[in-house]
Design brief:
With about 70 residues, the chain is an alpha+beta fold. The protein has one helix and three strands; from the N terminus they run E-H-E-E. The two termini are about 10 Å apart.
């Protein structure tokens, strides 16, 4: 599954860090969403990667085994 947005995105150098618990690019964020999502997807044998979207923002790609 691929989700694209046209927002500000996350710089390539900070994408892996975005998965760390409590790391947030927003002063009001908790920084748990991506950490929890990656844990769940990996528990099912998959992974999540963050990339640059062709829309100019962020692309989140979730891969799960079939």
């Amino acid at each position: 599954m691929t989700v694209d947005d046209d927002g500000p995105g996350i710089p390539a150098t900070e994408r892996e860090e975005a998965f760390r618990p409590f790391h947030s690019g927003s002063p009001d964020g908790t920084g748990l969403g991506l950490a929890i999502a990656r844990d769940i997807v990996r528990a099912h044998g998959g992974d999540i990667v963050l990339e640059e979207s062709p829309l100019g923002g962020l692309r989140a790609r979730v891969r799960l085994p079939i």
